[in-house]
Specification:
The complex is a heterodimer of chains A (307) and B (393).
Chain A: H1 3-8, H2 25-34, E1 40-44, H3 48-53, E2 64-67, H4 73-89, E3 98-104, H5 105-110, H6 113-122, E4 127-132, H7 172-177, E5 183-187, H8 192-204, E6 209-214, H9 218-221, H10 228-237, E7 244-247, E8 250-253, H11 263-268, H12 282-302
Parallel strand pairs in A: 1-2, 1-3, 3-4, 4-6, 5-6
Antiparallel strand pairs in A: 5-7, 7-8
Helix pairs in contact in A: 2-8, 4-6
Chain B: E1 3-8, H1 9-20, E2 24-26, H2 34-45, E3 52-54, H3 59-72, E4 76-77, H4 82-97, E5 103-108, H5 122-126, E6 133-136, H6 140-155, E7 163-168, E8 176-181, H7 184-191, E9 208-209, H8 218-247, E10 254-257, E11 264-269, H9 272-285, E12 290-295, E13 297-299, H10 303-310, E14 315-320, H11 331-342, E15 348-353, H12 363-379, E16 386-388
Parallel strand pairs in B: 2-3, 2-4, 5-7, 6-7, 11-12, 11-14, 14-15, 15-16
Antiparallel strand pairs in B: 1-8, 6-13, 10-12
Helix pairs in contact in B: 1-2, 1-6, 3-4, 6-8, 9-12, 10-11
Classes of the chains: A alpha/beta (307), B alpha/beta (393).
């Protein structure tokens, strides 16, 4: 999307919400909502975005909004979308609508995974957006299956014998692609026009679309508030968060760093990885590098790019 | 024009759903409800309804999608049983707290564990405090009639609460009964068009549903919900009156069967009430003044009315088809005993927990309970306040 075009879109997720300073879920949501061309019904899973944007009697959403519970934003919005199809079919309403479900990585990768899979498989015409900040930030930084290996969280703390989270993160974007839905993208907000373009594609797609968006959490990542967007660029340049889309089964790379940077650059800027730089933990960083390289090569191969 | 048909309870409920023609049904199959949603799916496949049928992947999503569909501004239904209801638990409270007029048949079945697919009321009794209106039915006819009335009750502007339409698993859901079903156009007219005031799919007036409700408002919203549950009582009676004009079938909070001059009485829900009626008839022939109070509306609980109906009875046995593990009797017993305490009635109330996991209860067994009550009157002594009836020791 061209910058001029983007600037003309209206703000539908307004200021005055109570997200933390430096939280990237806010700008991600704002950009995605700007890409919608119809009135929308927005669903949100219980989580940071939800508790910060709709505290009775206020709302930061200019569109209709529904929060049901933690694990069911996909099922809830699928019900809204089914109602829309039914009423439209019966001639009881005319207007076009967009349907969006937002969830953090907790509500998406973990507790809401079944509900998401069901909604995608059934083919509802909706966009599911995961703002992935890599832990349960709303309840105080507990590990999720999206938490990167080595990260210090309150349920995978770096201790005397265990150095933070032991497992690699789950590749949810690939799992969504395996649902053979028409549009899946893994993106980052440091390329706002790319993000809006992907969101626009997702809205224009007939059927389900899934967007996985990296969203810095300065509290959980132990990073500087003003570095939020910049860190998502570091994630792309170190290839820990590759940006790609799968449109009707075709994989396409959306960002290739000019020069791939070592993962240390990503790890060093975040307090949650601080313990990895202690003597004796070098092998963990080596493992993370190896895993990142393997994953990056896999993505390149899937996207038909040269390694 | 109504017609006399032979249907199972599940088929009768599927017919009710076809005639109600909800905009959305999101349901997951579970024994003994399965035939209901299968039959309804066929109506969808054959174009006999306008319904969008959402084939969700679980009951949790069934209730979640039904909440979404109802909040969107459509008439939405689902149906379940036992563990399915248990999986919905979290969202039951959200449906009622969000004031969504969802109607859901619940085919009563024992909750696991151990796993058992047969009838008892542990599923619905556990949900009695979830803010749903609960209707119970002796047979398929009543379940059918309750389902149609439930739409009007739930959607009434003074109520806006969801309703569970209970019927006994297998006993009612699978047995073929002769019943009258209304003409399609009569049901259509009776339930009317659903016209919500505020809903998601209104671009001119977007709303936020389910926001975070903190110390400053939550309590007031819960109070409003409690008031609505109270107001539902009159609405239930008004709708029943209207329904009687259409069908000549009479419904209230409960049915009093030979209760007026009774000295001993049984309180029961669902199909056991039919068995109890046979026992009452036999005892009446033998000169015993026996009666039955069959609860139809359990939530809201018609406390004053039940107290009034039981105040002159000398001994009452409550039949609870659920063990609450309070060690103080089953859920219905607790409610009944409490209302009689309030009016200082001179009546002994005892509890019989029976029929768990589908164990049959027979006419002569209920007669033996009436005999126990007579013994209580004779001796003035209550030997067992709570009995697990028919269980092997």
């Amino acid at each position: 999307m061209k910058l001029k075009e983007a600037a003309k879109t209206s703000e539908r997720f307004t200021g005055g919400h109570r997200l933390c300073s430096g939280c990237v879920a806010g700008p991600v949501t704002n950009l995605i909502m700007r890409a919608s061309k119809n009135p929308a019904v927005v669903g949100a899973a219980t989580g940071c975005l939800e508790v910060s944007s709709s505290i009775y009697p206020y709302t930061a959403w200019k569109d209709s909004f529904i929060h049901n519970a933690f694990e069911n934003s996909a099922a809830t919005v699928s019900g809204v979308e089914a109602a829309y199809r039914s009423l439209k079919k019966q001639g009881k309403m005319e207007e076009d609508f967009d349907f969006i479900a937002f969830g953090g990585d907790g509500g998406t990768y973990d507790i809401g995974f079944q509900s998401l899979s069901g909604a995608m498989e059934r083919g509802h015409d909706m966009v599911y957006v995961c703002y992935d900040n890599g832990a349960y930030m709303n309840t105080g930084i507990q590990r999720s299956s999206a938490t990167p290996k080595g990260a210090n969280t309150t349920t995978s703390p770096a201790g005397k014998v265990i150095a933070g989270k032991q497992q690699y993160r789950k590749e949810l974007t690939d799992i969504m692609a395996a649902h053979n839905i028409p549009y899946v993208a893994q993106i980052s907000p440091f390329k706002p026009q790319e993000l809006m373009k992907a969101a626009q594609k997702a809205f224009e797609t007939k059927g389900p679309a899934f967007l996985n968006v990296l969203a810095t959490c300065p509290r959980g990542w132990r990073s500087r508030a003003e570095k939020g967007i910049e860190l998502t660029k570091v994630a792309a340049d170190t290839c820990v968060w590759p940006m790609f889309e799968i449109e009707n089964g075709e994989w396409k790379l959306l960002y290739k760093p000019r020069k791939k940077k070592p993962v240390e650059e990503w790890l060093r800027q975040q307090g949650r990885f601080k313990h990895l730089f202690k003597r004796g933990n070098e092998h963990i960083i080596e493992d993370i590098q190896e895993h990142t390289d393997k994953r990056w090569n896999y993505i390149l191969e899937r996207c038909g790019e040269r390694q | 024009m109504s017609s006399k048909v032979a249907l199972t309870g599940n088929e009768a409920l599927a017919q009710a759903m076809r005639q109600i023609n909800p905009d959305v049904v999101a349901a997951y199959p579970i024994t003994p409800q399965t035939a209901m949603v299968q039959t309804f799916s066929q109506f969808v496949a054959d174009g006999e309804v306008d319904t969008e049928y959402v084939t969700v992947e679980s009951e949790h999503s069934a209730m979640s999608a039904t909440v979404g569909a109802s909040a969107a501004g459509s008439r939405a239904m689902t149906a379940t049983a036992a563990n399915g209801l248990a999986l919905m638990w979290e969202i039951l409270y959200i449906a009622s707290g969000t004031r969504l007029p969802i109607v859901m048949p619940v085919v009563n079945r024992a909750l696991s564990g151990p796993i058992n697919i047969h009838c008892d009321h542990s599923d619905a009794m556990g949900a009695r405090d979830s803010g749903w209106i609960q209707l119970y039915a002796e047979n398929a006819q009543e379940a059918y009639d309750n389902a149609i009335q439930a739409i009007r009750i739930s959607e009434h502007k003074d109520v806006l609460l969801p309703t569970m339409v209970n019927l006994d698993g297998f006993i009612t859901s699978h047995a073929v009964e002769s019943l009258e079903i209304l003409a399609d156009e009569d049901v259509k007219e009776f339930v009317g068009e659903y016209q919500p005031e505020n809903y998601l799919l209104n671009a001119d007036n977007p709303i936020a549903i389910g926001p975070l409700d903190l110390q400053d408002f939550y309590f007031e919203h819960k109070m409003q919900q409690a008031v609505a549950m109270g107001d539902a009582k009159q609405v239930i009676l008004d709708i029943a009156k209207e329904y009687k004009e259409l069908t000549a079938r009479e419904y209230g909070f409960f049915e009093s069967y030979k209760l007026d001059d009774a000295e001993v009485a049984i309180v029961a829900l669902n199909s056991t009430a039919g068995t109890a009626k046979a026992a009452v008839n036999n005892l009446r022939e033998a000169g015993v003044k026996a009666g039955l109070l069959k609860i139809r509306v359990y939530r809201p609980f018609p406390a004053e009315e039940i107290a009034d109906a039981l105040k002159d009875i000398k001994a009452v046995a409550v039949l609870d088809r659920a063990e609450s593990f309070s060690t103080n009797g089953g859920p219905v017993f607790a409610d009944i005993r409490s209302v009689l305490y309030d009016i200082k009635a001179n009546v002994e109330v005892v509890d019989y927990i029976y029929g768990l996991g589908g164990r049959d209860i027979k006419v002569e067994e209920i007669e033996s309970i009436f005999n126990d009550l007579q013994e209580i009157i004779k001796t003035g002594q209550v030997e067992n306040r709570i009995t697990h009836f028919g269980v092997r020791q």
